[in-house]
Design a protein that fits this description.
The protein has 633 residues and is an alpha/beta fold. Helices cover 32% and strands 22% of the residues. The chain binds 5'-O-[(S)-ethoxy(hydroxy)phosphoryl]adenosine. Pfam families: ACAS_N, AMP-binding, AMP-binding_C.
């Protein structure tokens, strides 16, 4: 957590560049305030207008928001649409079929260009293949794929036929994949033989096989495999199918399945403070509206832009700002398979120059690690690359420290590109609090002001507003179209986690602490107020890691805390009481390594504790997240 003093101490102000402001979707603070006032004066009218202007509907909606079953809100409920139609067909029908949708750069630097026409045909072929395999509206499909055009195609193909996708990040273990396959009751799984990252081939299909062998997912009738490397894999002829063979056999047109606006577009699992990860369920209409609208507002998207979001499609950022947002507006985007440090730590800067990227969106962890790399090796310094194509920079997933902000602003943006510090969550579907590039004066480390229509506030434990300058709990006071609809299969948990009685049952509890500046009213996020860690911008529940450790035969009890880290924001520290004698020296190292590997296998490498303390006898204070180390000998 940041200290309030350090937050309120930051007074550097960076006004929007005049040239950018002149031509921006929201130009100047007055334009921003006009939209805010429009939403306040007529909330339903405001959202209804945006939904009609931004999306193409098959059947119009007659009602905007239904609050009768709060907090199970519905939006545009009797309207009908299809997400893939909005992302593909409508651009082709408007004569933009030849526009580049995706500039794909592989791990080894090979580039493939996919136009809207190509993408539509690939999605249609795959959607037809799904249909032929019996996948239909309302079914769930799990996707366990690397960063690839195929990943976007699989997601869009699900949307086209009304199947609900659930992506599992390619770094998750067989156990995590299995939990999600069972959790959503998947009928099909899309995976790849292997994935390429940093010059190495890593398995996917064999992990998928392992997950399926754990049992309980007999509903999975088809395992569709994208051939990425041609590496050797096991083949189960009853179930396994090559993606390219399936697609080749199918027609390149496919009538979209028109669905109601509330139809679940996807379920994405994310860590909470208690229990197992939650399946966050998003709608079709509300989610897509906000993904597209924030492309226009936050990123000031223009047809001439080359947009690049470096997130993985396995996380919400990849859903909103790779698969849906950029395509819904008809944009050209870069899609990157690899990692920022391969073959060298100048890869991002090289790719910005090569593809003439204009809007670049990444995570503070990546920036901090590249600052360090450039300090060590002059050859990978951004000053060696022509970054003049850039006009807007974004940051997401974790707090950006003012030093990192200044480096990003100066060395990547050449002191001419606004930095959009976008605060949002898996549950919010899209940006909530963020500067607007042509309107908001920037303050390093602050996500500034809520987007128009988003009623964010800072309150105390009883739900009362706290004065500016005083820290509190970040809440959203009114429902918004892109909010999660429920937790898949667990509506009670949805209600108790996000609309707790303590706050009056009506405020959306984000789980972050925040403070507002007394002069500007700007929000600064102070960090999570619950037991969720943020490691390299990835959410991890302490309880999840504790349960994984406790499941190991050597472990009697375990407690996990986060420790601030210069590069990754936070790092995982585990305190463990072993069943046997307390190990010393080499033996302790061996056990720590075994437990680290265990957590990798149980959850995934991202959850691995950095350090272990095996000498602990009392975990009470650690659990209370206030460990003073008093019991550690
Ligand atoms: C954190 C990622 C500070 C926050 C889109 C939130 C941030 C959690 C920011 C959601 C930001 C996200 N400044 N903290 N700009 N953006 N966070 O669900 O703690 O993976 O609650 O969504 O990341 O993480 P999630």
């Amino acid at each position: 957590m940041k200290s309030i003093e350090s937050v309120l101490h930051e007074h550097r102000l960076f006004p929007p560049p005049a040239e950018l402001a002149a031509d921006a979707a929201i130009s100047g603070m007055d334009a921003y305030k006009t939209l805010v006032a429009e939403a306040e004066a007529d909330y339903n009218g405001f959202w209804g207008r945006l939904a009609r202007e931004t999306l193409t509907w098959k059947a119009p909606f007659s009602k905007v928001l239904d609050e009768s079953n709060a907090p199970f809100y519905t939006w545009f409920e009797d309207g009908e649409l299809n997400a893939s139609y909005n992302c593909l067909d409508r651009h082709v029908e408007a004569g933009n079929g030849d526009r580049v949708a995706i500039l794909f750069e592989a791990d080894d630097g090979t580039v493939a260009t996919v136009t809207y026409q190509d993408l539509l045909q690939r999605v249609c072929r795959f959607a037809n293949a799904f249909r032929r395999r019996g996948v239909k509206k309302g079914d769930r499909v799990v996707i366990y794929l690397p960063m690839s055009v195929e990943g976007v195609v699989a997601m869009q193909a699900c949307a086209r036929i009304g199947a609900t996708h659930s992506i599992v990040f390619g770094g998750f273990s067989a156990k995590s994949l299995h939990e999600r396959l069972v959790g959503v009751g998947a009928v099909a799984l899309v995976t790849a033989d292997e994935q390429m990252r940093g010059g190495k081939a890593l398995p996917l299909k064999s992990i998928a096989d392992e997950a399926l062998a754990l049992g309980g997912c007999e509903a999975v009738k088809s395992v569709i495999v994208y051939q990425r490397t041609g590496g050797k894999i096991q083949w189960n002829a009853d179930r396994d199918l090559w993606m390219h063979e399936l697609a080749q056999a199918e027609a390149s047109t496919c009538e979209p399945e028109w669905v109601g606006a509330e139809h679940p577009l996807f379920i994405l699992y994310t860590s909470g403070s208690t229990g197992k990860p939650k399946g966050v369920q998003h709608s079709t209409g509300g989610f897509l509206l906000w993904a597209a609208q924030t492309m226009k507002w936050t990123f000031d998207w223009k047809p001439t832009d080359v947009f690049w979001c470096t997130a993985d499609i396995g996380w919400i950022t990849g859903h909103s700002y790779i698969t849906y947002g950029p395509l819904a507006v008809g944009g050209t985007q870069v899609l990157f398979e690899g990692v920022p440090t391969y073959p060298h730590a100048g890869r991002f800067w090289d790719m910005i120059a090569k593809h003439q990227v204009t809007v670049f969106y990444t995570a503070p962890t990546a920036i901090r690690s590249l600052i360090k790399a450039a300090a060590v090796d002059e050859k990978v310094s951004p000053s060696n690359y022509d970054l003049s194509s850039l006009r807007i920079l974004g940051s997401v997933g974790e707090p950006i420290n003012p030093e990192g902000w200044m480096w990003y602003y100066t060395n990547i943006g050449g002191a001419r590109c606004p930095i959009l510090d976008t605060w949002w969550q898996t549950e919010t579907g899209g940006h909530m609090i963020s500067p607007l590039p042509g309107a908001t004066p920037l303050v390093p480390g602050s996500c500034t002001l809520p987007l128009p229509g988003i009623m964010a506030a800072v309150v105390d434990e009883t739900g009362q507003d706290v004065p500016a300058g005083q820290g509190g709990i970040l809440v959203i006071k009114r429902p918004w179209p892109a909010m999660l609809r429920t937790i898949w299969g667990d509506p009670e948990r949805y209600q108790s986690s996000y609309f707790p009685e303590e706050l009056g049952g009506k405020l959306y509890l984000a789980g972050d602490g925040a403070v507002r500046d007394p002069v500007t009213g700007y929000f600064t996020i102070m960090g999570r107020i619950d037991d969720v860690l943020n490691v390299s911008g990835h959410r991890l529940g302490t309880m999840e890691i504790e349960s994984a450790l406790a499941a190991n035969a050597l472990v009697a009890e375990a407690a996990v805390v986060g420790r601030p880290d210069e590069i990754t924001g936070e790092t995982v520290i585990a305190f463990v009481v072993l069943k046997g004698a307390r190990p010393e020296g080499e033996e302790a190292v061996k056990i720590a390594n075994a437990l680290r590997a265990w957590v990798s296998k149980e959850i995934g490498p991202i959850a691995k504790p950095r350090t272990f303390d095996l000498a602990t006898t009392c975990l009470r204070r650690v659990r209370a997240r206030s460990c003073a180390g008093c019991c550690v000998r």
